[in-house]
Fold this sequence. Notes:
The protein has 226 residues and is α/β, with parallel strands linked by helices. The chain has a single domain (5-225), classed as Rossmann fold, CATH 3.40.50. The chain is built from eight helices and six strands, in the order H-H-E-H-E-H-E-H-E-H-E-H-E-H. The chain has a six-stranded parallel beta sheet with strand order 3-2-1-4-5-6, sandwiched between helices. Strand 1, helix 3 and strand 2 form a beta-alpha-beta unit. The protein is globular, with a radius of gyration of 19 Å. Zinc ion (ZN) binds at residues 111, 113, 126, 128-129.
Amino acid sequence: MKDKKKSVGGARRRRPSAAAGHTKPAAFLDRDGTVCDEVGYINHLDRLRVYPWAADAVRRLNQAEIPVIVVTNQSGVGRGYFTEDLVRQAHRKIAAQLAARGARVDAFYYCPHHPTAPLKAYRVNCRCRKPAPGMVEKATKRFRIDLKSSYVVGDSYRDMRLGFNIGARTALVMTGYGRGEYEYHRRQWPRMPDLIAENLLEVVKRILAESESSVAPRRTRKRKKR
Length: 226
Ligand SMILES: [Mg+2]
Ligand SMILES: [Zn+2]
């Protein structure tokens, strides 16, 4: 019974520095327009529509052991359109719908603030409203994340700016506001996203293909040694 503890301690002693340095990429996903339909504001659960391909996309990330972290600006809270409780309910509903199809979001983070919010409690220049990095910083305290190889995926250039700010890779989807932003605003963009794809599933396929090709040489070496 108590043997379990022993082996855990042994493993920890074996290579403490390797464990500390053992970080991996995460996928930071925008919510509205990326995981579920962009409908302006989700101010009622009836308006919530998870994209039909989202479960497949998230499950593939789960299988690759890439943490899936939703980061979403919900300034509608500060504007008084809906409550934080509704945001949390929406996240439970998204999680349940994905779970029904074998997919798991590892964490949801939201920013309810806005610098000019009518509700005083939320009227702040916070550190969490994208493109500020606050939500990502919270996540990195909880998960071991290598930001440089992580991806920020979203349907707006604001999401891309978050990615630039944290030094991660960026992927723009054509769902939600994505196509419109790309068609009409990309000429003003100081920097282009690393990836542009039709939807979240297409992004995930390309992320996984990239990470496959980056680990492949190491596997080959191992085989040769044997
Ligand atoms: Mg969005
Ligand atoms: Zn905030």
